[in-house]
Amino acid sequence: MSTEIKAPVFPESVAEGTVATWHKQPGEACSRDELIVDIETDKVVLEVVAPADGVIEEILKGEGDTVESGEVVGKFKEGATGESKPAAKDEGKKEEGKKEEAAETSSETTAGSSGEAILSPAARKLAEENNIKPEAVEGTGKDGRVTKEDVQNHIDAGKSSGTTSAPSAKPAGDMPQVDVSSGERPEKRVPMTRLRASIAKRLVNAQQTAAMLTTFNEVNMGPVMELRKQYKESFEKRHGVKLGFMSFFTKAATEALKRFPAVNASIDGNDMVYHGYQDIGIAVSSDRGLVVPVLRDTDALGLAGIEKKIVEYGTKAKEGKLGIEEMTGGTFTITNGGIFGSLISTPILNPPQTAILGMHKIQERPMAVNGKVEIQPMMYLALSYDHRMIDGKEAVQFLVAIKEMLEDPARILLDV
Asked: Region (Disordered) spans which residues (predicted)?
């Protein structure tokens, strides 16, 4: 029986999407609930799975094509049996191993003799973007197939060990070879992804529509670092998660937002909307770009609850599995450029929010303490805010409140 493969129903805020990757090709066998195609929107990547055991009968929307909510992208034949391995048109995917049957050479790519790994389309794309040799990645999929997760794990392992894979000498996509003669200037033109295009549009809109201003301060991170050092082992043992700095900043920001409601507000046309709750977005960097999942009701969360949600969101962002509902509705945002080494910056507003807090690198500096010069671990803080909604006095006092709570963490617990 033939059935239609449809794009998921998009939320009202999403008009259309793009076919990102077909994981299965026409004639290729699929198991029930097996991933067959990714649909990328300007917020998340939505996965479409096989409705039953069968084969892909026809692809109506190729990779890169625009699709609307619920639109048919292909056809699926339920109960049919097909190729268990990708056909020759699967763009260079070859079977691993050196001893293969000669009967497979007619319509499929013979690969056993080449010893090259079998990569899914998504895995191949990720490998090419990061100059990873396919044969260097250990496959965990069926028949030794290298999955996207295998490639990502290989990249993460290289980062953690401080090494990187040597660039492949073969052209990656339409990119010229790495080994080029002196004087040559290779270029590669890549279409902007929907997420990147959405980020660009929102940032430009924020700068053009908001009266954005940034105020700075600095905080002595010594007290928080000492508290963290003292309790990090017992904290992790009890809660199963590490105690980081972000939870302290989130709790400090939550208390400050309660004291200064305008910073926790948003602008809707000519209306100013004051929120009686604190939903704080945490900016997370992913392979697809910057995403901002939201921690709901942070006033009701403890440090452990915040850290667990941050780990959960970080994992989902890495795997491209954040849901749209997890990235909408925030009232305030925190971004941490310090993890990349940023010493000071001016974060851009996340509309329709009226303020965003920027954290930065902890840097030891000589500071005057009680008439003496001491070396202290200092961090610059930046608060960008919409001057239409927030006066300079409120912005400065808000940032000072966060500074005071971080330099005396007991204030966070005592709400003083």
From this structure: 73-190
Q: Give the mean model confidence (pLDDT) for residues 392-414.
A: 91
Poorest-confidence range of 116-125, 196-205, 310-319? 116-125
The CA angle 178-181-184, to the nearest 5 degrees, is: 85
Domain-located, residue 275? yes
Considering its fold, how many domains does the chain have in total? 2
Strands (E), 317-386: 332-336, 355-359, 363-369, 372-386
Q: Which of 121-125, 331-335, 368-372 has the lowest mean pLDDT?
A: 121-125
Residue-level pLDDT at 205: 75
Tens digit of pLDDT for each residue in 187-207?
A: 777 777 766 777 777 778 777
Structure tokens given for 271: 């209306």
CATH assignment at residue 17: 2.40.50.100
CA 86-166-159 angle, 5° bins: 95
| Residue 352 maps to a domain | yes
Q: Which domain-ending residue is among 60, 78, 96?
A: 78
Q: What is the mean pLDDT of residues 236-249?
A: 93
With residue 406 as reference, give the H or E element that holds it.
helix 392-407
Annotated active-site positions, please?
387, 391
The pTM (predicted TM-score) of the whole model is 0.61
> DSSP per residue over 37-70, as a string?
EEEE-SS-EEEEE-SSSEEEEEESS-TT-EEETT
- Reading the block at residue 386, the tokens are 């919409």
DSSP class per residue in 61-78:
S-TT-EEETT-EEEEEEE
Mean pLDDT of the chain: 80
Q: Which domain holds residue 10?
A: 2-78
Q: Is the dihedral angle over the CA atoms 198, 200, 201, 207 positive or is it negative?
A: positive
List residues bridging with 47 in a β-sheet. Answer: 38
CA nearest to 339, candidates 249, 222, 211: 249
Of residues 41 and 67, which shows the higher confidence score? Answer: 67
Give how far the C-alpha of residue 43 lies from the chain's centroid of Cα atoms, to the nearest Å. 10
